[in-house]
Amino acid sequence: MKRGSIITPLLLILIGVVFLLKNIKPELPVFQIVFDWWPFLLIGWGGLRLIEILVSYFRGSALPVAGVSGGEWALVVILTLVGSSVWGIQRFSRGDHGWLRIGDMEFFHQTFDYPMDPAAQPAGAAPRIVIENLRGSIRVIGADTNEVRLTGRKSIRANNSRDADAANEKTRLEFTSTGDIVTLRTGQEQSSQARIRSNLEITVPRGASVEARGRDLDVDIADLQGNVDIVSDKAGVRLQNIGGKVRADLRGSDIIRGFDIRGDVELKGRGRDIELENVAGEVTINGSYSGETTLRRIAKPVRFESSVTNVRFEGLPGEMRLTLNRLATENATGPVEIRTRSKDVELAETNGAIKVNTTRGDVAIRQSTAPKSPIDVEISSGNIDLALPAAATFKLNAETERGAIVNDFSLVFKETTTERGSKLEGTLGAGPEIRLKTNRGEVSLRKVAPIETAPPGKAPKAEPKVETF
Amino acid sequence: MTPLAALIRALRGPLMLIALGVLMVVHRSQDVSFSKTWPVLLILFGLMKLFERVAQRASFEEQRP
User: Fold this and answer.
1) Can you tell me the ipTM of this complex?
2) Which of A116, A241, A284, A353 has its Cα between 20 and 30 A from that of A159?
3) Contact predicate A365/A354, CB 8 Å
4) Strand pairing category for A316-322 and A326-330
5) How many domains does chain A contain in total?
6) Could you tell me if residue A133 is inside a domain?
7) CB spacing of A43 vs B28 below 8 angstroms
8) Of B6, B12, B24, which has the smallest distance from its Cβ to A42's Cβ?
9) How far apart are CA A51 and CA A240, in angstroms?
10) What is the pTM of this model?
11) Domain boundary residue, one of A68, A92, A116
């Protein structure tokens, strides 16, 4: 007797379980899980079939002509098409308006727009403004006024206008003021059915402080004297002309941009790009950022800490650019301390002591004025290139365990070759101590090309000139 | 049809299915688009066909002398 495959009953059971779970526990994102994991269904299906065929082969029973029948292939094709198109759409509209709620089988959504009635609440000169908005955007502008004025728009994605109206009714805006504290809640959590985004435009007294909380927020704040505090999962943050401290705790920011901030800046979390310019306070960045971090004109100490990189400056009149595999600074104020893994480090025109410690990557240091503070570079694997002005005087201690040393600077330094490496030591006049050490790589000591001098205090807009090394 | 050739032929479907699943997983998690990797399925199909022929041929030649 020819037995049928075990797949068909298993598939039926699986489908039954999925729908049963959906009915018993509607809050479980069962369909979402299925759509997230369906390729493994294909693999499991194929694997089971494979085992079945091998078993019947070794038992000597009759083999099916085709391992997977035509009907099954049709099912696979349908599954693949549906699965991949759902992904495609999800990927295109990650978290944005076009979200598809697979959980409720709402594939065809429409967006319904609800303008908010303009509202205003009295406030003192320096109120605290607390905004809770799960999804959407917040735009806050400081002005010479004694009230908090709000306009905005709510967009609701739903199957039909009836559902959208119901969701709109449920999510009433809460806007209250005690004078010192102004609270604004969009109440999106009241409606779990529809996807709502509230876009708020708020005008506040110039002295206000803002606290914004959400899950997927675009925050845009300008012209405030107070502090700014943002907590959100996903976020894009743009700040301009802020008088107080800025604190942002974001778990997935695509960009954090800040210009003209007079207080300290403290960023925490994960994200992509960071751009800060003209900050009068300290800058502390703690977390992992996969894009580019650009800092310009920071008056007070800068600290950047991630799991692999640790950077400190006493100040940054120039510019720093940090990506996953490169750190370049121009015109930083020392002591500069850099500890990192697998990154090329390029320091140009540093003012003060330099200490670099990397495991893999090249280090290039260029100074067009004679160094007055010590330089200390230590690399496990990578080249060191140091360019100093011809008039510089210093005490040198350069060493490579495997590699060569190129000395284009002065013959005062004596080179001794070790087993596979080389050492270069000596004292040229009175000056700071320079220690260069790599376990594996080349060390070169050069005179800086005189045309390379950049006017001090001016940050270049283009890529730092250290590129031309 | 020799038993080995029949086995290879029967295994073709399940293996293709597994390969499709793997490509879909890669498409999702590794950002290697399925629109780039689909020829793998074609190659796999061709290889299975080839093996089937080889298995068939080999057994004919065994029987001949």
Assistant:
1) 0.76
2) A116
3) yes
4) antiparallel
5) 2
6) no
7) no
8) B24
9) 63
10) 0.63
11) A92
